[in-house]
C-alpha cells in the first residue's frame, strides 16, 4: 500500500510504500499527464511548486490513485 502525506500541500508531498522501479505519474483532474518517473526508492517527493493551485492525481503502478490539493 502506498501513502501520500500531506494531501493538502503548498509545494510538495511524499509518496511512500512504493515498490522498486514502479511507475509514478501525476495528472491534472482533467486527465492531463504532467509528469511521470520511475521510482528509485520506496519513497519519492512530488514537487508541484511550478503548477497552479488545484487538485492533482498521483498514480503509482497498479495502486489506487490518490488526490492531492495544492493551495
Radius of gyration: 11 Å
Uncertain residue segments: none
- Please state the average pLDDT score: 96
Number of helices: 0
Q: What composes the largest sheet? A: 5 strands, mixed
User: Given the helix and strand composition, which structural class is it?
Assistant: mainly beta
Residues in β-strands, percent: over 45%
Instruction: State the helicity in percent bands.
Output: under 10%
Sequence of secondary-structure elements = EEEEEEEE
Global geometry: globular
Number of E strands? 8
Spatial order of the strands forming the largest sheet? 2-8-7-4-5
Distance between the ends: 26 Å
Topology:
Layout: E1 3-5, E2 8-9, E3 12-16, E4 23-28, E5 33-38, E6 43-47, E7 54-60, E8 66-70
Parallel strand pairs: 2-8
Antiparallel strand pairs: 1-3, 3-6, 4-5, 4-7, 7-8
Question: Overview of this structure, please?
Answer:
A five-stranded mixed beta sheet has the order 2-8-7-4-5, with no helix packed on it. Strands 1-3-6 form a three-stranded antiparallel beta sheet, with no helix packed on it. The protein is built from no helices and eight strands. It has 71 residues and is an all-beta fold. Strand 4 and strand 5 (33-38) form a beta hairpin. Helix content is 0%, strand content 55%.
Amino acid at each position: 500500500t502506498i501513502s501520500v502525506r500531506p494531501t493538502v500541500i503548498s509545494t510538495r508531498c511524499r509518496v511512500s510504500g512504493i515498490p522498486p522501479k514502479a511507475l509514478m505519474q501525476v495528472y491534472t483532474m482533467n486527465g492531463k499527464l504532467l509528469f511521470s518517473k520511475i521510482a528509485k526508492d520506496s519513497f519519492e517527493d512530488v514537487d508541484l511548486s511550478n503548477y497552479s493551485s488545484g487538485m492533482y492525481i498521483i498514480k503509482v503502478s497498479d495502486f489506487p490513485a490518490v488526490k492531492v490539493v495544492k493551495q
